[in-house]
Every structure is written in structure tokens, then in C-alpha cells.
């Protein structure tokens, strides 16, 4: 097979750790990929390629890069990896650039990104993905991968089967679920349990798992998210038993022991976090449903104070 034979044209919008990792693997497999990111990223990639420092290999991958959103023109698949705070503004621009047949895959934290994208640009065909990867960008044009690297999409359709097939060709595990809403909430449980604690404690996941006091915070945060899910009629798969949910959080923290949460990485860089879509979302949804969420609200409020934006 030639390098780009039978691959769709793929654009990565928001080429940070997630977009860089998955887009980089697609490019490495031979897909035509354009990555849209900040000037420092684009300059580094144009000069030296995108360096993937993964658990399996270390390799520089040649990939097209641009600072301009207009580079998405003619893309058949868009990996939508911007911060959730940028959903509406980015989606509105994409809506004017993409063909109606283009698929936009939301690879973001949170559970309501697809709704936000569609509300901002009705013509965009947006699909949700649940992303499990521990990765960071230690310097522009370099992605450091320290754990997992798999996706969940759904429900089963021609579109999701196509997405799963494309990632599988790039050796990225991609599972199709008939309960994608529940899967998004499963990821939300882990994010609400670990992200803010990691950020506020400046601690990698492994340290959180080994601290009994920190784990009490994690435990209560998990139980609150599950209570909100039940009140909302959501069924995160495998988390019906709260003890199983807590065991899952411990497994995630152990699998990604060397990872600092994306929230922590953002705070370290002086950037806005996505906590509004995580613990903040649970706080708001809990208030709407009459479910108390004091720990999630506290984590949300403290991260916002750390941002200096509360």
C-alpha cells in the first residue's frame, strides 16, 4: 500500500497532547494529516517533524502543520481537540469551512461537547469520542506518552464503524459502544475524581493513589458524580456499584501513575483549565437535580481560584 492510499484527509484542530498523539499515529501510519496549532508548535513541526516519545517507540513523524483554521478545507475527518472553553468560537469557523459530508470527532473531556458544537454550527456532523491517554507536550513539536492510548465511539453506525476502522489501521484501539453517553460519563467520573486533585496537589496520579487522605477526597467525588448520573438517568457501564467505580478510579490512577492531569498541566502553564466541564459541570447539574455535590463544587471553586478567574 502506498503511503496515503485509501486514507481520508484528516485535520487535527487543537494540536496539543491528545491531537498530537492520535494525529501523529495516523500520520505515522500513512494518513494525510494536517495539524492546526499554535505558532511555536507549527514552527517546530515544520522544522523537525512531530516527535512522538511513546511507550512503544520514539520517532519523528513528518506531518503538515498550520496556524490557520482554513487548513481544514477538504478534510473528510476532523479531530476536534480544542479546549472546551473554545468550542463555540471554533465550531462557528469550522461550519463555514467544512463540506457537509465531513465528520467532526470530539476528542475532549466532558459530556456535552457535541451538543455545544452542533448548537454553534448546525451543519457540522459531530460525533463524540471517549479518549483514554496520558500524554503531555514537554516542548513544542514533542509529545510525551506515558499511558494507555485508546478510544471509544458509538453507537454503531456506518460513520462510527468508519472511524473505528481508520484508527485501527493506525494501531489505535477503538471500541464501539451502544451506550456512548454512559461511556462519556464513565470518563467524567475519572476526570472529576483525579484531575483537580492532581492539579491542586501538584501530584501525579500514582501519588494520589498512595495517599489515604487524598483517596478519601477521590472517593467522595466519585460517589457524588454517580449520584448525579443516577438522578439524570445516565448509566455509566460497569459503574452501577460505587465500590466498582472506586476500584476503576484506582486502576486508572495506577495505569497512569506517572501522569499529571491535563488540569494540572494547564495550571502549570498559566492557562485556563477545563474544570467548568468537569467538576463544575457536576456542581451545576447536581444543583439542577437537587443532588448535593460539596466536594466537586469545592474542587471546582479551588481550581478557579488557582486560575485567578473566579
Topology:
Layout: E1 10-13, H1 17-28, E2 33-36, H2 39-48, E3 50-53, E4 58-61, E5 64-66, E6 77-80, H3 87-95, E7 103-106, H4 113-120, E8 125-139, E9 142-153, H5 158-169, E10 174-176, H6 180-201, H7 205-209, H8 212-232, H9 242-255, H10 262-268, H11 279-289, H12 294-307
Parallel strand pairs: 1-2, 1-6, 2-5, 3-9, 6-7, 7-8, 9-10
Antiparallel strand pairs: 3-4, 8-9
Give the count of helical stretches: 12
- Uncertain regions spanning at least 5 consecutive residues: none
**What is the CATH topology assignment of the largest domain?**
Rossmann fold
Measured distance between first and last alpha carbons: 53 Å
Structural class of the secondary elements? alpha/beta
Number of domains: 2
Spatial extent as radius of gyration: 19 Å
Q: Briefly, what CATH class of the largest domain?
A: Alpha Beta
CATH homologous superfamily grouping of the largest domain: NAD(P)-binding Rossmann-like Domain
Number of strands: 10
Global morphology: globular
**What letter string, H or E per element, gives the SSE order?**
EHEHEEEEHEHEEHEHHHHHHH
The CATH architecture name of the largest domain reads 3-Layer(aba) Sandwich
In round numbers, the mean pLDDT is: 95
What is the helix fraction of residues, given as a range? Answer: 40-55%
Amino acid at each position: 500500500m502506498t503511503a496515503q492510499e485509501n486514507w481520508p484527509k484528516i485535520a487535527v484542530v487543537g494540536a496539543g497532547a491528545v491531537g498530537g498523539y492520535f494525529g501523529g499515529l495516523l500520520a505515522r501510519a500513512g494518513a494525510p494529516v494536517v495539524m492546526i496549532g499554535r505558532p511555536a508548535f507549527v514552527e517546530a513541526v515544520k522544522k523537525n517533524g512531530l516527535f512522538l516519545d511513546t511507550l512503544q517507540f520514539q520517532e519523528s513523524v513528518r506531518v503538515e502543520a498550520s496556524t490557520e483554521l482554513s487548513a481544514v478545507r477538504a478534510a473528510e475527518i476532523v479531530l476536534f481537540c480544542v479546549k472546551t472553553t473554545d468550542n463555540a468560537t471554533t465550531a462557528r469557523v469550522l461550519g463555514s469551512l467544512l463540506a457537509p459530508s465531513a465528520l467532526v470527532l470530539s476528542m475532549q473531556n466532558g459530556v456535552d461537547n457535541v451538543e455545544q458544537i452542533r448548537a454553534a454550527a448546525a451543519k457540522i456532523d459531530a460525533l463524540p469520542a471517549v479518549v483514554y491517554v496520558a500524554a503531555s507536550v514537554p516542548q513544542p513539536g514533542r509529545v510525551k506518552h506515558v499511558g494507555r492510548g485508546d478510544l471509544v465511539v458509538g453507537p454503531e453506525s456506518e460513520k462510527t464503524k468508519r472511524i473505528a476502522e481508520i484508527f485501527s489501521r493506525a494501531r489505535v484501539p477503538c471500541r464501539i459502544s451502544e451506550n456512548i453517553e454512559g461511556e462519556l460519563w464513565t470518563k467524567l467520573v475519572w476526570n472529576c475524581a483525579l484531575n483537580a486533585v492532581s492539579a491542586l496537589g501538584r501530584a501525579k496520579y500514582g501519588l494520589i493513589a498512595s495517599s489515604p487522605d487524598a483517596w478519601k477526597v477521590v472517593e467522595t467525588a466519585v460517589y457524588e458524580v454517580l449520584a448525579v448520573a443516577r438522578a439524570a438517568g445516565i448509566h455509566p457501564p460497569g459503574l452501577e456499584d460505587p465500590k466498582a467505580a472506586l476500584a476503576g478510579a484506582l486502576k486508572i490512577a495506577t495505569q497512569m501513575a506517572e501522569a499529571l492531569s491535563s488540569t494540572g498541566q494547564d495550571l502549570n502553564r498559566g492557562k485556563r483549565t477545563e474544570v467548568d466541564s468537569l467538576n463544575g459541570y457536576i456542581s451545576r447539574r447536581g444543583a439542577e437535580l437537587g443532588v448535593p455535590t460539596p466536594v466537586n463544587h469545592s474542587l471546582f471553586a479551588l481550581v478557579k481560584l488557582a486560575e485567578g478567574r473566579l
